[in-house]
Each structure stands twice: as structure tokens, then as C-alpha cells.
Description:
Blueprint: H1 3-13, H2 22-25, E1 27-30, E2 49-51, H3 57-63, E3 74-79, H4 85-97, E4 103-108, H5 114-127, E5 130-133, H6 139-157, E6 163-168, E7 171-173, H7 175-184, E8 192-195, E9 197-201, E10 227-230, E11 234-238, H8 241-247, H9 258-265, E12 273-276, E13 281-283, H10 295-299, E14 307-309, H11 318-330, H12 337-346
Helix pairs in contact: 6-8, 6-9
Membrane topology: Single-pass type II membrane protein
Keywords: Glycosyltransferase, Golgi apparatus, Membrane, Signal-anchor, Transferase, Transmembrane, Transmembrane helix
Family: Belongs to the glycosyltransferase 31 family.
Amino acid sequence: MSFLLFSYLTQQFLPFCKEQNLSYFYKFYSLKEYSQPDKTPLNWINIKLVWEPLLKPKLYYKNKNNYNNSFSSLFIVVISKLEHFKQRKFLRKEFKEQGISSFIFVLSVANASKQNIKNINEEFAKEGDLLVLNNYRLLTYKTRAWLQWVTKQFSLICGPPRFILKIDDDLMINWNALFRLLQRAGPSPERLLFCRVIPNGQISRNPASKWFLSSSEYKRNKPGGLGLYCQGMAIILSGDLIISALSNLRHVQFLWMDDWYLTHALLFNTNVTFVDIGPQVSSVDEEIKFNVNNIVKAYNVYYTPIFAHFRPAEHFPESRKLIEWKKMLGKYKPFSLSSFYKHVFEKKN
């Protein structure tokens, strides 16, 4: 191995020897750089629950602080659609394979057919992991419901979990890469938020847009008026943030955009650090392209995909989704030193 290659590898690998080096791999953002969200409209309501999950507090408490023990200190919240029985079944299997026992599915029975109500009754009786809302279809209501429920349950048990992972029910997860990310945060993470960051969210005043916001819903009109928030399909919060978010429920603006509501409005004035894992959050039409400068990072599985969406859903049944996910992960297999040397130096000659 040439001295040049050795020096380059040493420089790139050295940060892996440090306990805290998230800033080496990811870009950080802070809400301090943005103006305070409006306090109205509040639209406060009491959310009625049909069923509440059955948590296993003793098992969770036992593993709470062991951050090296796989995902024992992770609590997962899955935002699910009522009729997505197959998706929930698939995720339960995934969780079981990873030794994850602390999770809930959050869904609503709004406009549910009699057959779906019957099926949900049976699913709840069998699994006991559903947090079911009564007639509230907005995702923001689901956010309020799980936030209140999780905070209450863990205050009765042992305090908040080390991390909370909030995902959609059609998300694919690279568990090895996720585990490495959570380990990198250390045993006692505080005020950390991992997601694909949107630094200056744009406001759409076009009524034909899916993301249309009327001036009565959101008053600000300046460019980037939504400020800093996370794309909502995969969000990881350090557990200490849920208490702060809950305390803001009655004091910040309500908005139907649940990702903005959770990660901007509810977390304002919490001194939270946004860690942008955007390069590791992908979809079927977004191929992450590596260049020479980040090959070593790819080798260490820090810039391989962690989360992926495959949409539209009707084009991707579970069987095809699994195939495409394996293809995506296969593109980012670890480089051997010989292949790295060949890739970097032979191209220069």
C-alpha cells in the first residue's frame, strides 16, 4: 500500500475512533436561526382514543440504558392507515427479527367500513399494539395522540426511551445502518433530531397544489416561510424531546402538515440539534451517487440508505418492494481496500 493511500485512509477512518463525531458525517441545523412560530390558530381539541396499546414496562425498563444491546433502547411509532393490514404484519415480522418489542401503530377509524372495523377488532385482540383514534383523519391529530400517550406511559415506567423512531408504515429500513447511526449518538443523547432536513420550507398558495396553505392556516408569506423542519416519513428523536414537545402543545400554532408541526412548532425553544441524514433517506426514483471523496464513508456504511420509500404504493406490492430494496442496498456494498485503490488511483492515470 502506498504512503499516499495509507495517509488518506488514516485521515478518513480516524473519526471512527472518537466517541462523538456526528458532525464529521452530517450537517447540523438549529431552530435558533429561525423566527418564533405563530401562536394561532391553535385548534385545540381533546382526542378520543378507541384502543390503547398494551406496553411491556418491565421488559423495556430492563433494557432502557443498554445502548449497545441492539435496539433495546429504541421505541418505534408507526403512522399507519386503517386498511394497511399487510404493512403492519410485515413490520411486526421485521421488528421481531431485530429483537424490538417496544412499538405501536397509530391509526384512525374515520370512515371505516364495517368489515375493516371487524378486522381491526381482531387485530387488536391478537396483537395489542394499536393506538386507535376515533374519527380524526388529519395526521397532526395522530401526532398529538402518540406524543401524549408515549409521554404518559413512560412517565409511569422509567422516563423516556433513549430514542423514538417515527416512521410511515410503508417504509423500508436498513437495520444495520440504523444501528450504527444510533450508536454514534452515544449512550445519553440529548436534544437530537435525525431526519431529512428541509432548511427553508416553501409556502404554496396554489389551491391546486397538494401542499396548499391558505393565509388563514399559515399567515407568513416570505420565501422559506415554513422555516426549518423534517420530511416526515422517518424521524428519530432523542427521548428527552417528547416532554418538551408535549409542553408546547397548547402554545404553538396548529397545522395539518404533521412533519412541520412536530419538528418545527412543537420543538421550538428546545435547543434541538437537527442532524441531516438526507443522503441516507431515499426513494425509488432517487439514486445516491458517490464520488471519490466519500467512498470511504460509504465503506463504513454511514452513507448507505437507512430508510426508503417506494411509491406509488399500488406499483410496489410487498414482494416487489423487497426486491427493489435489496437492489438498492446491493449498490452500496463495502469496498475492499484493493477495489478502493483501483477506483481512486487508476482513474487518475
